[in-house]
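Board work, copied verbatim: Ribosome hibernation promoting factor
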Amino acid sequence: MRYQISGKQIDVGEALQSHVKSELGETVEKYSQRPTDANVIFSRNAHEYLCDATVHLSTGLTASATGHATEIYAAFDACREKMDKQLRRYKRRLKDHHRERSEPVEFADAPMYVLAANDGSSDSEPESLQPMIIAELETKIPSLSVGEAVMQMELSGATLLVFRNEKSGGVNVVHRRDDGNFGWIDPTAM
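↓ predict structure ↓
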């Protein structure tokens, strides 16, 4: 597994890096036999240290966790415990899903745009109904089943996931509803 361990305005020493590699590697190997890479970022917020970890699995799924504490090692340990809990909780779903995924998840490239927000300071009508594009980026859209999309959304902690449905081939959306349930938008079903 490849590791990228860095700090935002923090010097991450060799001792911390070796601690992260051994502990996180042990946690991930326990639940996933084929992790590909891990990205761990340490930062500081006032008196607390923050640790954000993202682990990419060979199936295409991504697990992420965040921990914070007054000591940097304790922040990592809190993050690792959350990652352990996530992977343990979803191990059965990752392994015994409706069908075993033999190939990695395919990703399709798609354009992504950042639009200017309406400042809301004036009550007058905007000059044009066309939004101003601030940035043009590229994003990846995974090809997943609906169950895998919900699982990926839960693993990453996101509130919304856009994906290509493996069954229909159309672009679908799963989202977390205010009542705690999940919504699934499938425009090809209409």
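The chain has a mean pLDDT of 82.
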